[in-house]
Write a structure and sequence with these properties.
Elements (H helix, E strand, L loop, with lengths): L1 E9 L3 H20 L3 E6 L5 E8 L2 H8 L10 E9 L10
């Protein structure tokens, strides 16, 4: 399994995002329960969010993200995905 850091940049349509947010957070909770979403949350200034996922590969990650209720709206204007090699920290078994 690979780990990915995803940064979402929110658009200016805040009201639409807030309307969809409960469904998005329910989706996120389910992904966390399944062990796919490791951590995530919005930036303090509410301009975007950072999320850490675990998936077999980028193609699988993109399929997972496509099921997010935010994906069917225009609330995310930019997505940056980076595969991340974690070498230190609490997530490292040892």
């Amino acid at each position: 399994m690979a780990r990915f850091v995803v940064e979402w940049v929110f658009g200016t349509n805040r009201d639409e995002r807030l309307a969809v947010r409960p469904a998005h957070r329910e989706w996120a909770a389910e992904q966390a329960k399944q062990g796919v979403l490791l951590a995530g949350g919005p930036w303090a200034n509410d301009t975007g969010a950072q999320v850490v996922f675990e998936a077999a590969d980028r193609a699988e990650l993109e399929k997972i993200m496509a099921t997010d209720p935010y994906a069917d709206t225009n609330v995310i204007v930019e997505t940056r995905i980076r595969e991340w090699n974690v070498v230190a920290g609490a997530w490292i078994a040892g």
